[in-house]
Amino acid sequence: MLNDNSILRTENLAAGYNNNLVLSNVSFSLEKGEILVIIGQNGSGKSTLLKSLSGLVNPVSGIIWLKYQHGNNIKPHQLIKRGFSFFTQGGLIMPDLTVQEHLCLAAAQNPGKLQKTILDSIFAEFSNLKEMQTQRAGNLSGGERQILSLAILSMQQTDTWFLDEPTAGLSPDLVNLTTDFLFRKNREGITMLLVEHNMEVAFQLATHIMVAKEGTLSTKFNRHQFTKADFLDNYVYN
User: Fold this and answer.
1) I want to staple 15 with a disulfide (CB 3.0 to 4.6 A). Which of 51, 52, 93, 173 is the partner?
2) CA 4 distance to own-chain centroid
């Protein structure tokens, strides 16, 4: 059972694809207000974990709790109603839809007056989006698609974000923009479970860190208990 500060918890979670088990014996919790960053080598099960929590991969065994409710059989479209958003690697973009259509879909569960308030705040934060509303997302630059994906997260008005490598493939300027955005949103009350390959981003954002290795997760470490170099030497590369 979850404690008062737990947003989610897994108990002995196992998951994979067809007959290939990728995760086994994964038990951890995400507490309110945390940025829990999961690092690890390719193929260690990081993305599979987020997909299992988001209903894209069905667990083989174990238990998922999402805000005091069982989450083993949750469907992706039910996530937002429970207060969770999932940023998939590469962003949240459908090429044939316009910027305006993306934002309207993201806010569909909110009342009309609230949608207008949220939209105004997003246009204040990302002023160039207002000018691009009629453009199809497939015609946007990589940077513009990233900004639109971040705006979609805000429009959904959820309080917990699962983020699968949100800085992958980005230029240094966009990495900084994304990192600043996530840091700011956490200070505004968003709890985050973040898979990240960029160690600079991971250690800049994290309140806590776990290592994915051989299909399971390490103990949760407080980010401030060690230097980055000591952590990588002792827990990642050994």
Assistant:
1) 52
2) 22
Q: Which residues pair with 103 in a beta bridge?
A: none
CA distances to 21, 48, 205 from 44, in Å: 11, 9, 21
Q: Got the DSSP string for 208-219? A: EEEEEETTEE--
Distance between CA atoms of residues 218 and 55, nearest Å: 23
Average confidence (pLDDT) over 149-165: 93
Query: H/E element holding 60?
Result: strand 59-66
Burial class for 157, CB neighbours closer than 10 Å (0-12, 13-18, 19+):
middle
Where in the chain does DSSP place strands (E)?
6-17, 20-31, 35-39, 59-66, 69-70, 84-87, 160-164, 191-195, 208-213, 216-217, 221-222
The tokens for 237 are: 């590369």
Angle made by CA atoms 44, 48, 151, in degrees to the nearest 5: 115
pLDDT of 1 over the 50 cut: no
pTM: 0.90
pLDDT surpassing 70 at residue 235: no
Whether pLDDT at 53 is above 80 = yes
The two structure tokens encoding residue 226: 């060690």
Q: What is the DSSP letter of 232?
A: I
* Tokens found for residue 137: 């997302």
Mean pLDDT, rounded, for 201-205 = 92
Q: Is the pLDDT of residue 238 over 80?
A: no
